[in-house]
Each structure stands twice: as C-alpha cells, then as structure tokens.
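During the reporting period the student researcher (J.K.) took over the structure-prediction task from the postdoctoral fellow and processed the backlog of single-chain submissions. One of the processed entries is reproduced below for the supervisory committee.
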Amino acid sequence: MTTTTDTVIATITLPWPPSTNGMYTNGVDRRTGKPRRFLTAKARRWKETACMQAWVQAVNGRVVVPAGPLAIALELHPPRRGMRFDVDGKSKATQDCIATVLGFDDSRIVDCRVTIGDTVDGGSVVVTLGARS
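J.K. obtained the following structure tokens:
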C-alpha cells in the first residue's frame, strides 16, 4: 500500500473511467423544472460496468471495510501511449465506484495516491484500498 502502516483491504481492477469533465450534462429535472446536472449515457454505462466488476472482485461483497481512515492508491493504465488526461478527473469516478460498492463514505479517504502505469488494451485502473493505522 502507500506506507508501512497501511493494511491492504482489497485490490480491484476497473475499466478506464471517463473524465469528470465528460461525466455530466446539464438539463432540466422533469419533476421540479429546475436546472440540474445528469450523468451522461457513457458515464452511466461505465458506472454500471465498473461497479459490477468491483462487486465481483470484492468476492460478492465479502470484503469488509473497517472503521476509521482509509488510504487509496490508483494505478492508471491508459489505453494509448502518449494519451493526455487529468489524473484528478480519473480518480473521482473511481473513488465513488469503490465507495459505493464497498459501502463507505468516500470522505474517509485521507490519503490518495495516483500513479500512471503502462498502457493496456482498453485502459484500466488498479485500485488498492487500505486501512490507515
């Protein structure tokens, strides 16, 4: 994990996420008539696929996240060599997915490390979640 005091809870590989900038579109809420931001169709498909993959890799929900602060390490594997992207934009969607699947509030993440790895076909993100001691 990120330091010698972290205990690894789970390591999960997810598909390459959309950027935060491309995840939302503006629209009008049909119920209230007020302006609102909605997930794009591409973002909804990614979220559904990523959360299902995370659930399966977390042994169908058997991963238990202990109370207390958490650390997360994201290793981004872009789909193309030389691809330009914002690492912050990739981390938010990934953190939200992991927090949803494992059932914790992402505000508990006190240490977030992002590194860029080698390219892989289709792109991926390797997520390592740890408990901070």
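The committee noted the following: The chain has a mean pLDDT of 89.
J.K. will present the remaining backlog at the next meeting.
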